[in-house]
Fold these 2 entries.
Entry 1:
Amino acid sequence: MAKSQLPDAILVDKYVAGDENALAILINRHQSKIYGYIYSKVSDRDVTEDIFQETFFKVIHTLKSKKYYNEEGKFLSWVLRIASNLIIDKYRNDKKMPLNRDTDELLIFSRITDDSLNIERKLIKNQVEIDIKTIIEKLPHDQKEVIMMRYFLDMSFKEIADFTGVSVNTTLGRMRYAITNMRKVIEKNKIYLPS
């Protein structure tokens, strides 16, 4: 069997054993899906390129350092999970997180999006974004992850379940707990979120 037709798991083993060409085959095999996924979430070619490259730096580092990798042949899912985490980190570290998703699921995320905001409203909007980031950071990791993927990456609950390796029902449960916890923090600290 030609090396290019080998399953992902065997190519990963070959790469870990020192066959650099095995990784080139894996990248070539999956690059369009990975690149397309990243671009669908960030809609910016330069940012997509950066995250794509950083994703494979992490893949190489993890495999070369022989850190725990046991994806049972699900190499693509593993790489997409790495990319997803990098996208979340990018949004988390950006000063301007995209908080303009309108949904009935959670009015907390209903934001002012008018470009002609006056100075006072812009200041309020910036403070609200800071407050929401602070609240999200206080959530348990699994709840924070669902919020970030759902509201900032616009992922479906099915996509989130696939990436986190849990059922859709568990994902929905985590979202409910996250919303409840956020509302409690908002009420307790009397945080005002204008709609």
Note: The domain at 3-93 is CATH 1.10.1740.10 (Rna Polymerase Sigma Factor; Chain: A).
Entry 2:
Amino acid sequence: MHEVADAVAAARDGLATPRGRLRIAAPLLFSQLALGRIAARFLASYPEVQIEAVAEDRLVNLVDEHFDVAIRINPSKDSALVGRCFAKDRLVLAAAPSIQMPKGDRDKPFPVPAVVTPSYRDGDIWSVRNGQFTIEPRPVLRLSSLLMVRDAIVDGAGAAMLPQSIIGSLLEKGELVSWGIAGDEVELWVLHTSRRLQSPKVRAFVDFMCKQYPNGSFTIPIR
């Protein structure tokens, strides 16, 4: 019914101007790193839209909870939602230069001190370089925030698997060293509930998100 009301309002206004409240659900890390600036830029282009963004990692129900769009990482392919991939990221195994890079292999993982998140399970093995290089994490810290993990390994606590987007500048400055890329690229999508009744504000936001990352890589906006 919200989509029908938006469609009727858009038809009445000539389909020209995005307006009204736009509710956005986004993962916590993406929200902390990028969504504030993106929302401000969008508002500058579309001043008649009022943005309400909710940052949390659970999968919200767009219809039941009255969200217009959601930012999701590697969304399920059987999802009823539609949308576009606007950027990609990748996981990097990294550590401070003071941590010696091991010389393990796939058959004999090398134990190293590690900073992990709650998703880590005892016995997990980290593999990089297409499986040719493996390590056995020995957790020394368990932290719930990837930004905390980043700060901990910069200070030499151990190695960690982190998105390239949040450590790229530290790798360039030599404060962290990459031990290799892990797995496939991570896709970031902007999703909505219906292509047929897509309102001007939703259509404008989807297009705007894709223009923020013209090279397809997720990078943190420069201050």
Note: The chain has a mean pLDDT of 88.
